Amino acid sequence: GNSVTQMEGPVTLSEEAFLTINCTYTATGYPSLFWYVQYPGEGLQLLLKATKADDKGSNKGFEATYRKETTSFHLEKGSVQVSDSAVYFCALSDQRGSTLGRLYFGRGTQLTVWP
Amino acid sequence: DAGVTQSPTHLIKTRGQHVTLRCSPISGHKSVSWYQQVLGQGPQFIFQYYEKEERGRGNFPDRFSARQFPNYSSELNVNALLLGDSALYLCASSLALSANTGELFFGEGSRLTVL
User: Which residues of B5-32 are buried (b: 16+ CB within 10 A; e: fewer)?
Assistant: First the structure.
């Protein structure tokens, strides 16, 4: 079956520190991979995505590379800001059905950045 | 443009009662999905509707049902509420069905508390 495993939180960093949030997955077929972010008081927003092996998704300084050999999609940012404080969710979509609506989410990782 | 809107934002029910949650997708989006997010966990897929037809159903009991109206808005109904149904219920809409080209847009959710 399909599942996503994220590193446990919370993660607390100082501003300008390097961020890595680990994500590994189990999937049948050829999934697309996503990172969603949930800022306080807001709905989930797509941060970045990758649809095939070796693709790199990037947005707002965040990056993640689709690694099929290690079944991973780790999120990285070189220099975090206080405004990056949020909950980050890794997710996958089973490609076989080509239906976008069904995503499988990890548990989420709370990130807090201090000035 | 308005995003995905959900109502009510908060509600409290007692065990055995029934609840109806409502969702209006982004204008032009024909696909609506529902997710349940229990505190401390990632969202879990409940249903997807596209063009008023059910396109997917997650591992939830028959107490959960949904429908989509001709204007693409949607309702999620839960009967015989249990304490374990307490959660944030998220609605998401999308323009496309394919994970390669589409993006899910989430509402802020309806927070249900069952006493």
Answer: ebeeeeeebeeeeebebebbbbeebbbb
CB contact under 8 A, A100 and B31: yes
Contacts of B95 (CB under 8 A, 6+ apart): B26, B28, B29, B30, B31, B102, B103
Per CB-CB distance under 8 Å, the chain A contacts of B3 are: 43
Q: How many CB pairs under 8 A join A and B?
A: 83
pLDDT by 10s per residue, chain B, length 115: 679 999 999 999 999 999 999 999 999 999 999 999 998 889 999 999 988 889 889 999 999 999 999 999 999 999 999 999 999 999 999 887 665 556 789 999 999 999 9
Is residue B6 within 8 Å of residue B59, measured between CB atoms? no
Please answer yes or no on whether B41 and A107 come within 8 Å at the CB atom: yes
